[in-house]
Amino acid sequence: MAALIRDRTTAGRTTVLGLATGGTPIPLYQELIRLHREEGLSFANVVTFNLDEYLGLPKDHPESYWSFMHHNLFNHLDLPPQNIHLPEGMVAESEIPAHCAAYEAAIRNAGGIDFQILGIGRTGHIGFNEPGSPKESRTRRIHLDPVTRQDAAPAFGGLENVPTHAITMGCGTILEARKIALMAWGSKKADIVREAISGPITDQVSASFLQEHPDATFYLDKEAASALG
Ligand code: PGA
User: Fold this and answer.
1) Contact yes or no for 140/55 (Cβ under 8 A)
2) Whose CA is nearest to atom 2 of ligand 1?
3) Which of 113, 124, 169, 226 has its CA 20 to 30 A from that of 101?
């Protein structure tokens, strides 16, 4: 990622990153901060689009992805605030389709995503594309799977506080990224990682669509890889 940013900056071009939240990308974000602080990697020519945001959470809610990204990455880089994009969690219901269409247009106008980072949920979701999300799906409102809400419950202090819906880039949006890196750590991810990599390509496991992407790489630790043959 650093090489891509440096090469494109040297060529006078911006780099468009697709970013993820959750525990998985935190080591990556810590390394990007280190590269910025210690090795002068500049994000002045970087544009970012996050995968998703909870519906109903204001930006300053501690569990909003806006808060997560600023706390864990953006506040520590020289990334211009106007280059940062996340779906808006407080968008009025009637404005959701227009908001999602504008998000898609902003990605297109930026030239598309050069490098997309992904985690994987235990439902196989990438972004919040829960089982049943079509391969061609675009940015939209999604109903969160009970497994996903359960996994988020500790951070929210109880299941009843976890939002029921989110806005997420669609599978089709994600798959248009020119380069994709999915990361997964720990034994809890082993079964779904196996399904995503060696199971059928199915909308029941949205990460399985990555099998057909020309430049997608899975980065796994030993535990997350432990169910692979
Ligand atoms: P995690 O979530 O990084 O917190 O494990 C991944 C995901 O749900 O996509």
Assistant:
1) no
2) 22
3) 124
What are the tens digits of pLDDT across the range 46-84? 999 999 999 999 999 999 999 999 999 999 999 999 999
Q: Which atom of ligand 1 is nearest to the CA of 189?
A: 5
**Distance between CA 23 and CA 186 in Å, rounded?**
11
Counting every residue, how long is the chain?
Answer: 229
Measured CA to CA in angstroms, residue 82 lies from 49, 79, 191 at distances of 11, 8, 39
Q: Say yes or no: CB of residue 89 within 6 Å of ligand 1.
A: no
**pLDDT tens-digit profile of 180-207?**
999 999 999 999 999 999 999 999 999 9
Q: Which CATH architecture has domain 2-220?
A: 3-Layer(aba) Sandwich (3.40)
Domain boundaries, the chain: 2-220
Distances (CA, A) of 41 to 8, 19, 45, 167: 12, 17, 11, 31
